[in-house]
C-alpha cells in the first residue's frame, strides 16, 4: 500500500508525515509523530481520551483519518502550555487533584480549553454536558468539574 | 483497519466519477463517525473512501426566503450553534444536539446520519416532520426524493451506485408552525435512542391545529411518518385527549424489537409518551412565538 504524504499544522507548527490512508489521526500522532500526549482509550469515539481540535473544532482523533489533516490546523494537548509554563487549566487540574491514573486528563484538558473558548462563563451543568464525552473512571468527576469551574473563573480574570 | 484508498474530490462530478469507476467497494464519507468504526471492526474488504467535505457547499447551510439549504456534511456542532436554523426548525437542531458527545457532534452530520440509515438515527424523524427533500446526484443526473422515502431499511437507502446526497432542502415553515424532537435513553447523555418522536404543528389564531406531522424513530426498521397521529392532532386545540390519541396512534404504528436497550412493550409505550410530549412542546413553541 502506498503511503500518503500529508502537510499539516500541529499546534501552530508546520508538520509533514506519511501515513496509510486508513490510519486514524490518533495513530499518526502517537506512532508516526511520537506525540503521545493524546491517549487512546476506546478507539471508537466513546471516551474522549484522544480529543484534539481540527480547525478549532473539538473531535475524537480516533474518528478522523490522518489524511484528513491535509491543510488543516490540529491542536493537541502538547500545544496547551506556553513557553514551558503550564496553562491555567493544567495548573487547576493539579491544584484540585482532578486526576488519578491520568489517561483521561489530556483529553479533558483539550476539551476544557475548547469549552472555555466557546463559553467563558459556563454553569456547572453546561460544563458537565459539554464534557460528557470525556470519560474518567477514577475521579467521579467532581474534582474535574471543580478544576474546570475554577479555571473558568481565573481565565475570566475574576479570581 | 482494512486497506483504504482515500480520495477527497473537489467537485460533485469528480466524486460521482470516482464512485462509478471504482474497482474497490466504494464508500462515501462525511464526518466518518460511523464509517471509521465500521472499517475498523466490520469491514473485511479493501475500500475506496470518497470524502465529500472538500466539495463546495457540502459543509454550509444557507437560509433564504424559501427555507433552509443544508449541506449534508455540515457537522452537528455547527448546526447547533446556528441560531437562524434553530429559530425555524428547533426540533431538527435538538436532534442534532442529541447525537453523541461534543466531540462526535464536531464531526457527525445530518446527511451522514441519514445515509448511514440506522433505525435509531435521531435526525431522521426530526427531518421527516420538516418535510425535507433530498437532492441526489449520480451518473444519470439529479433527482429529488422526499426524506421519508430516502431510507428503505436497516442501514439501507435509495442511493444507487455512484449516487450521493448533495443537498437537504427544507421549505420555510408556514406561519405559526414549530417542531420538537424528543428521544428516550436510559441516561442523560451519550447513548442511542430507545425510542424517538418528532412532531411539527401549525396552529391558527384560535389555537386550533391546522396541520401536523408526526414521525417516530427506533421502533421500526426505519423511522416512520405516522399520519394517524397527525390526524389525531389536526382540528383540535391539542388538549389532553388529542395528545393522548396521537400518542396511542404512534404506539400502534410502531413495530419495535426487544434488545438490550428496551423491550417491545416498553418501546411501544415510550414512543407514545414521547409523541405526546413532543407535540405539547411544539405547540408551546408556537404559542410562545406569538406571545
Main features:
heterodimer; A: 159 residues; alpha+beta; Ubiquitin-like (UB roll); DNA polymerase, domain 1; 2 domains; five-stranded mixed β-sheet; 5 helices; 5 strands; globular; B: 291 residues; Uridine Diphospho-n-acetylenolpyruvylglucosamine Reductase, domain 2; Uridine Diphospho-n-acetylenolpyruvylglucosamine Reductase, domain 3; Enolase-like, domain 1; 3 domains; five-stranded antiparallel β-sheet; four-stranded antiparallel β-sheet
Task: Summarize model confidence as the mean pLDDT of chain B.
Answer: 96
What is the highest CATH level, the class of the largest domain in chain B?
Alpha Beta
Q: Kindly state the number of beta strands of chain B.
A: 14
Full CATH superfamily name of the largest domain in chain A: Beta-grasp domain
SSE run of chain A: EEHEEEHHHH
Radius of gyration of CA atoms of chain A, rounded to a whole number: 16 Å
- Structural class call of chain A reads alpha+beta
The counted number of beta strands of chain A is 5
3D structure, described in words:
The complex is a heterodimer of chains A (159) and B (291). With 159 residues, chain A is an alpha+beta fold. Chain A contains five helices and five strands; from the N terminus they run ββαβββαααα. Chain A folds into two domains: 4-79, Ubiquitin-like (UB roll) (Roll), CATH 3.10.20.30; 88-155, [2Fe-2S]-binding domain (DNA polymerase, domain 1), CATH 1.10.150.120. Chain A is 32% helix and 16% strand. In chain A, strand 1 (4-10) and strand 2 (13-19) form a beta hairpin. In chain A, helix 2 (88-95) crosses helix 5. Chain A starts with a strand and ends with a helix. The relative contact order of chain A is 0.15. Chain B has 291 residues and is α+β, with helices and mostly antiparallel strands. Chain B folds into three domains: 4-51, 2-Layer Sandwich (Uridine Diphospho-n-acetylenolpyruvylglucosamine Reductase, domain 2); 61-171, 2-Layer Sandwich (Uridine Diphospho-n-acetylenolpyruvylglucosamine Reductase, domain 3), CATH 3.30.465; 177-290, CO dehydrogenase flavoprotein, C-terminal domain (Enolase-like, domain 1). Chain B is built from eleven helices and 14 strands. In chain B, strands 4-5-10-6-7 form a five-stranded antiparallel beta sheet. A four-stranded antiparallel beta sheet of chain B has the order 11-12-13-14, sandwiched between helices. Chain B has a three-stranded parallel beta sheet with strand order 1-3-2, covered by helices on one side. In chain B, helix 9 packs antiparallel against helix 10 (240-253) and helix 10 (240-253) crosses helix 11 (264-290). The longest helix of chain B is centred in the C-terminal third of the chain and has 27 residues, at 264-290. The radius of gyration of chain B is 19 Å and the shape is globular. Chain B starts with a strand and ends with a helix. Classes of the chains: A alpha+beta (159), B alpha+beta (291).
